[in-house]
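Continuing from the previous page...

OK, I double-checked the sequence for 2-oxoglutarate oxidoreductase subunit KorA against my notes and this is the correct one:
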Amino acid sequence: MTSQVSSPAEQTDGADEAVVGEQRRPAGEKEVRRLDRVIIRFAGDSGDGMQLTGDRFTSETATFGNDLSTLPNFPAEIRAPAGTLPGVSSFQLHFADHDILTPGDAPNVLVAMNPAALKANLADVPRGAEIIVNTDEFAKRAMAKVGYDTSPLEDGSLSAYNVHPVPLTTLTIEALKEFGLSRKEAERSKNMFALGLLSWMYHRPTEGTEKFLRAKFAKKPEIAEANVAAFRAGWNFGETTEDFAVSYEVAPATKAFPAGTYRNISGNLALSYGLIAAAQQADLPLYLGSYPITPASDILHELSRHKNFGVRTFQAEDEIAGIGAALGAAFGGSLAVTTTSGPGVALKSEAIGLAVSLELPLLIVDIQRGGPSTGLPTKTEQADLLQAMYGRNGEAPVPVVAPRTPADCFDAAMDAARIALAYRTPVFLLSDGYLANGSEPWRVPEIDELPDLRVQFTTGPNHTLADGTEVFWPYKRDPHTLARPWAVPGTPGLEHRIGGIEKQDGTGNISYDPANHDFMVRIRQAKIDGVEVPDVSVDDPDGARTLVLGWGSTYGPITAAVRRLRAQGEPIAQAHLRHINPFPKNLGEILARYDKVVVPEMNLGQLATLIRAKYLVDAHSYNQVNGMPFKAEQLATVLKEAIHA
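Thanks. Re-ran it with the corrected sequence; updated structure tokens here:
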């Protein structure tokens, strides 16, 4: 039977799931419904394996060919207090048969492994949604720990939902009897039982998960087979139990993607690959000097695996040592990178100023998180923008680049490397926790699609004195880019002074001359102002009078909200910034076209402040700093109010 195709209105990103068809089935077989999208949230204790469960479901969904977007959400503690609300870890996955942009506003299915998981997530679950509950964990003590006086499974408080009570722990232990595991060891596989059940429920492939489990536990084959058995038991439970009378299918998103080879990728992994690709395209060794910090550590972990590409990673004793080593590598002729989050940027600020003075290429990757100070290590925020712009002593301008989706982190890393190498400058790459940990399909580019980033090192004298003597001037500039020459240490005749004290124009000698300092400050600023960045494009099919302007990871929620409004007949224009310093040259002209400019940000209005200051535009801020990304419906409501205000 040919399935019905969903209408454009039904395909509005973030909307509730829609049944778009139903398969015929022989008598006695379970009903199979076709959906155009599903949002699933796995939730449990931080030790219950919810992130692993979500990752595996995501991998199989990507293999199947759906478009997808994910939102991992977990505590900062390695092992948060069991059974408590602060200890709840969750993983949300939105997958569809068409192009989507966000992990979804509200889950259609909640898998709650204990009372804390149910209570922490129930407010996000819409009426009529499916809730799968591990009934084994609903003992009086566990419920009292999170404030349940009576069992929500029995007091009618869940009557608005389709609740499926499943004794996940008991069923898992029963399925693993033959393996001779202790009760505690067997219980650890209950997440695989839940994964098997959901895989049956949504017709996900299973071969990849079984292969993954056997590889993950290769040194403990009995544990590997126990997890595979639990996974299969969950699948079989869904097939045989009367409680699940319906399973669902979400067709591959065949029209959502251009032709090519695709894989599922997280933001940090895409960024790592982008750095490696940039080094290969520049024909330079890649050097990472870093100190581990959430949520940036995965980049260090990933790059350390790729020594075959000339990558060298150094885990320093602190943030300052990390950037110091990276800056030394830049001086030595490497594509140098340092990775961190907001607290680390604060510690690196003096060395970033030194990089500005030395005018060497250096990538400062800031995976932003909630602040100030240690703040919210595992939650997302966009509050480091002004720190990246101005968080150094003196006039120390640095370009700022911000990716907009997990997959876009690859291209943003390439772009940041282009700017750093061409203009001999440190560059900020501002990702955040939402992008870093979230994932989506990524088309693997062909080699010939990547830009040529090769640079020429200076190998001989570049200046002739009045008496005809040929000498090397380390601060003689390229007339187009204003970049100074890059001389590798040890090149005969190119010895030159480095350090943080002001340089004399051209010669690079120490200079305290007021006029020279004024010139050097202005020339460094002019170099950054002259960085070539593409014009910003505007999506405005209806001649709107209201523009929504975003940057970084707000792209998905903003675009989803714009789609909703246009489906309702509301005119709204959208522009999104990758380059924040310098701004695209056409930005001022674009802003002047509109009566209203709305800037949603996960901070208290930092981009809006820059826009107001530079363009004298009355930009209206809409801000959120709760550690979570915007929801599409939330932004749609705000933007609709702005249109009609």
